[in-house]
Amino acid sequence: MKYSIAIFFTLTLFIYACKNKSSNQTKAVVATDTLAKQRFFPVTNYIKGQLLILSKKVNPLKYTTIDNRTDSVWLKIEDLSTAVSEFLTPVIDSANLNTLFLEKSFKDQTLNAITFTYEPIAKIPDSISLSNWNVYIEPETGNVKSIYLVKTIGAKTIQLTWTNNTNCKMVYLTSNADGSFKIEKEEKIVWDF
């Protein structure tokens, strides 16, 4: 009788273990399939498209603020790509970052926009300085309202806010020992006057 109970108990544990292993494998396959089906908004192509449209317009005005002092200069159209080149790599699209970032979306009523947020799934390789980004879409038209990107390079953080057909703003931050940030400089490029 003792052996029958022991065998029954062992078989029950074996069946339970097999069932849980299969369930965990199914969850891993579902998660992998979800990541493979993500269709990221092509941010890099969007910015390059905006630069192409701008190349047919008037020269943009660049404002640089350091220590509460602002200076402005007219940019040549051909220098605009160089001014925002930091945000053209890595290429942000489904093919390149699909396995590193997860897309979430929601309707943000405070901004009157459909917001797509992209955050890391796990530790990002050192070769990729991109931390996260958001894309804001106008719900009525489906047009891009703005894009917000964050890149981290060592102790420095760079933020880009690209407002559709209007301007872009880059904020350069340095992290302090206490975890706070200091603004080194801000650059705003305006092309819609």
Provide a short characterization of the protein structure.
The protein is α+β, with helices and mostly antiparallel strands.
Could you please describe the fold and organization of this structure?
Mean pLDDT is 82; it is low at 1-35. This protein has helices at residues 2-37, 43-54, 77-83, 94-97; strands spanning 61-66, 69-74, 101-108, 113-120, 130-137, 144-153, 156-163, 167-175, 181-190. It has a 9-stranded antiparallel beta sheet with strand order 2-1-9-8-7-6-5-4-3, with no helix packed on it. A hairpin with a 2-residue loop joins strand 1 and strand 2 (69-74). By secondary structure, it is an alpha+beta fold.
Helix content: 25-40%
- Indicate the overall shape: globular
Q: How far apart lie the N and C ends? A: 90 Å
Oligomer: single chain
Rounded to the nearest angstrom, the radius of gyration is 24 Å
Helical segment tally? Answer: 4
Given as residue ranges, the uncertain stretches (5+ residues, pLDDT < 50) are: 1-35
Helix and strand content put the structural class at alpha+beta
How many E strands?
Answer: 9
Q: Return the average pLDDT rounded to an integer.
A: 82
Q: What percentage of the residues does DSSP assign to strands (E)?
A: 35-45%
Order of helices and strands: HHEEHHEEEEEEE
